[in-house]
Amino acid sequence: MISIIFASLAPSLALLCFFYLKDNYNSEPLGMVFRSFIFGVLLVFPILVIQYAFQEEGLLISPLSQAFISAALFEEFFKWFILFYTVYKHAVFNDPYDGIVYGVSVSLGFATMENVFFLLAYGVDLAFIRALLPVSSHALFGVIMGYYLGKAKFGEKRQQRKLLFFSLLIPWVLHGIYDYILYVQRYWIYMMLPFMIFLWWLALKKVKLANKKTVNDENVKNLY
């Protein structure tokens, strides 16, 4: 059991540290980051109940509906909901990059608990591939969600609703594509590899843009 917990937690902490240390302006309070991580852990339980209920009723059983609704929509919506109501309106969310830090922490909390259940069921031998794919993909979806939340909060007010919508829509679509590749493609690895490269490229681009926005905003403040 200890090996399973360690194998589930280690890649999540490594990724969380990576994106946390990418903040070029000011680091977020660790207590708030930890709280967001725990919220992500707790999200697994209601989502599993909802997914199980749909499965028992024979609903959302096609590969398309499982990928885009049962997995992607439920998971990304609940993560977005937690971020919006516990972080977005909080005083600690005070620069655009903060959205990425908290988006990643909630997503990795979820991925860690999901990983524990998976490794308990199928064995710790799968820990490495789980770290490369599900855990890292959740982190990257969190980067993109957090980027648009940061842009919504600190961008133009007239764009706020659209950006909030994008903060859910884009991670949902990307998550759905990820799961659909796993569900229906016989040679899924040949599609997953370029898709994961694209996800990393997109997420790191958002990290750079969020940091640039933060620095530029701070420079403007220093003029007054």
TrEMBL record:
Keywords: Cell membrane, Hydrolase, Membrane, Metalloprotease, Protease, Transmembrane, Transmembrane helix
TM region(s), chain numbering: 6-21, 33-54, 66-88, 100-122, 128-150, 162-181, 187-204
Gene Ontology molecular function, alphabetical: metallopeptidase activity
Organism superkingdom: Bacteria
Keyword Nucleotidyltransferase appears in the UniProt entry: no
GO biological-process terms attached to the record: proteolysis
Membrane topology, as annotated: Multi-pass membrane protein
Major location category of this protein: membrane
Pfam families reported for this sequence: PrsW-protease (PF13367)
Primary role: Involved in the degradation of specific anti-sigma factors.
UniProt xrefs under NCBIfam families: intramemb_PrsW
Family membership noted in the UniProt record: Belongs to the protease PrsW family.
Protein's name according to its UniProt entry: Protease PrsW
Gene behind the chain: prsW
